[in-house]
Amino acid sequence: MDSEQRRKRKQQGRIYRPACAKLLLVRSLTVCLSCLVFLLFISSDRLPIRRDGSFRPVLRTSTMSLLPAFLTGGGGGGVSQYQNLVVEGRVLLPDHLVLIVSSKLTPPTDNLDCVYYDNMLERAVLKPVISVDGYHQQLKSIVRCHLPPLNFSASVNLRGRGRSGDVVVERREWLLRLNQSVVPSWNKVVYEAVLDSNGYSSNVVVFAKGLNLRPHREADARKFRCHFSLTDFDQGLFVFNTRAIAAAQEVFRCLLPPSILNNLAKAKDIRVSVSRVDYNVEGADGAPLPSVAKVQIINSHEHKSNTRKYELCACTMLWNQASFLREWIIYHAWLGVERWFIYDNNSDDEVQEVIDELNLHKYNITRHAWPWVKTQEAGFSHCALRAKHECKWLGFFDVDEFFYFPHGRGRYKPRPNLLRALVKKYSDSPKIAELRTVCHSYGPSGLTSPPSKGVTVGYTCRVEAPERHKSVVRPELLHTTLLNAVHHFKLRDGYKYLNVRESKVLVNHYKYQVWDSFKAKFFRRVSTYVTNWQEDHNKGSKDRAPGLGTEAIEPLDWRLRFCEVWDTGLKHFVMANLADSTSGFLPWERSLA
């Protein structure tokens, strides 16, 4: 009997143990998978976890507008590059609308239209684009459109025209969503973001308008926070927030989210915004600014870490100054500038053609489309970030400013690379991070038309007293804020600037040229904190021309103004060292081809 009962219990055990084992196995797998999902979730950058510990899930939807597919009438050509474009952002500037497109548009682009929809979606108006530019190392594009007509939405779309009259057919529900999206105005938007990594630390530098920081002063970084997202902030996924560690003017430096810090390549094209916070009040955060800024990784693209640095580079911001660019670059290349960064602020002249021609002759120039108006200080900060991986010294000066070594009054003899030799003396200095030189401002010198041999030879009469200064800096030693006043930068603690004696080197500033050249200053001032001359403000500013009002009306005696000292030093220097010995031609007087 006992043996029979033992046999039955063994049979029951064989029946029920496998079921228990299966149950335990399923429960174990469930727990493991849950743990794995949780670990992945908390490590994701798309989780809205703040450093203060609060958790803020937000339900959002994307507003990135994929251009609708083209319906062709058969055989239509010329629109293929427009079929899969994504408009990543739109910004209303004072005189036009900027669209940021996700891919590079190759010429010709004269078959591309801006499409404007009225607020009720009852009418559509088409206008040709103003211009198209490469953007972000030519990987993306900027399309400039006219401002929308009255009662039309700023959510402008694009349409390509083919040879057979191709058309775009949009779905009404798609257009409704597009029209409801908010297009930021220029006075309140985050417009650029750059990854800054030096091997020891990495963070993101963000450029924004709308927080109204005081000019030329460092701000309290504790009052600002950065926000990271894969889409827009008004309709996007979860946002990861980090604190700012530096702030000044329009530039904010923030920590990176931890998972991006561990893999910097993940930072590329993540959208970034900035908000103001009250660090004394828990949870008192302002809303992030509208943003069209996606993180750029610029140093790895343009310069290899094992390549030697250039001793001397130059950076400038310009608008419609192609006619002066050739002389400025050729002359300063003779003085030793090896690398050029040209920030083009919406020019519509032949700047690109001039640069292409010079690059054929190994002048090493990069044109960077900078569509953001009145942001010269921010543009120079951006340029310093780009150049520090390539250049030991970086000069910031305009295309009407020319370094001059007055050899007749000093020990220097005319020879190439004088400026490079000067900065090289301080390349290993433990204290000097910036060299400053005084400027002399030149007038029209009796001329009524632009001088054929260029400004260095044509303008020879100047104001007696020097005005302001220009600087050449070591970009790796700039302050973490990148704070600058155009003419000079704030330096890291422990470093200082050196005023170079006027007898050694100075800058000839051809500021007051013949009227046809000078009057352009009335229509565009690039500095953030300089009033446009047509505005009735700050008339006593040194930036303005004394005696002129707010209208571009030529004074009768303009050609004779600003002439107190006749100074032909640079003219003779140029003719003696750069003119052809047979013809007398200067290299910028004719095509280099």
Automatic annotation (TrEMBL):
Belongs to the glycosyltransferase 92 family. Keywords: Glycosyltransferase, Membrane, Transferase, Transmembrane, Transmembrane helix. GO terms for molecular function: glycosyltransferase activity. The keyword Nucleotide-binding does not apply. It is an enzyme of class 2 (transferase). One of its GO terms (cellular component) is cytoplasm. This is Glycosyltransferase family 92 protein. It comes from Populus tomentosa (Chinese white poplar). Its EC number is 2.4.1.-. It is found in: Membrane. Its main location: membrane. The chain crosses the membrane at residues 21-42. It is a single-pass membrane protein.
